[in-house]
Amino acid sequence: MAIRLATEYVKTCLQLTEAEMAMFIQMFVDHQASMRVRILENGNQEVVLLDDAGQEIVLSFERQSGAYVCRGTCRITNRNLVNLMRKAVAAFKGSAIVHRHYETYTMVYEYERGTVVKIMELRNSQQKIIYAYKDTMGELEQLFRKDEVEQEISRVKFQINSMLDLRNAIDETAVREHIDRRLAELTHHLFVLEA
């Protein structure tokens, strides 16, 4: 089994309310993570986590419109902190691009609103997609909302009704034969559309 060397949050975005910020901090406290919180003069906060080698991992939360927003990067080697960050991104519906570095390859995870939407393997400067989220329900809903065929069916039915009214109003045989040919074409087209 491959040993993970480090996990790098290349691009992270967490947006927390004040209550969620307290829950975020409590999540790390509950799992005995070595940490401290700095509250800055302007209301911003920094959550400082200590990694295995005593390295500080600083997560800066900027106060914006009543919320705390964290955007940035960090590199973590402590397995407990890696798992806590993964849980935090999922729990607080964050977005992130995460590189999990192994000796011979890197796994790239893309999160949107707390959910993994893509997993890629990078090896020798080649990419291989392992997983990509497919919004099947969204695609089906979009397909359901397409009503071009129904509109075409309505147009053809209207033409057929108009031609039948015209046929009933005309006595000339040559014109009626022409209308009958056109009606045959329209009914065939209608059959194809409804199939």
Account of the protein in words:
The structure is a single chain. This protein is α+β, with helices and mostly antiparallel strands. A hairpin with a 5-residue loop joins β2 (35-39) and β3. Strands 2-3-4-5-1-6-7-8-9 form a 9-stranded antiparallel beta sheet, with helices on one face. α4 (148-169) packs antiparallel against α5 (173-194). It has helices spanning 18-30, 79-91, 136-145, 148-169, 173-194; strands at residues 4-16, 35-39, 45-50, 56-64, 67-76, 95-102, 106-112, 115-123, 126-132.
Summarize the structure.
By secondary structure, the chain is of the alpha+beta class. Helices cover 41% and strands 38% of the residues.
Salient structural properties:
elongated; alpha+beta; single chain; 195 residues; nine-stranded antiparallel β-sheet
Order of helices and strands: EHEEEEHEEEEHHH
Strand content: 35-45%
| Low-confidence segments | none
> Taking strands numbered 1, 2, ... along the chain, how are they ordered across the largest sheet?
2-3-4-5-1-6-7-8-9
Topology readout:
Elements: E1 4-16, H1 18-30, E2 35-39, E3 45-50, E4 56-64, E5 67-76, H2 79-91, E6 95-102, E7 106-112, E8 115-123, E9 126-132, H3 136-145, H4 148-169, H5 173-194
Antiparallel strand pairs: 1-5, 1-6, 2-3, 3-4, 4-5, 6-7, 7-8, 8-9
Helix pairs in contact: 4-5
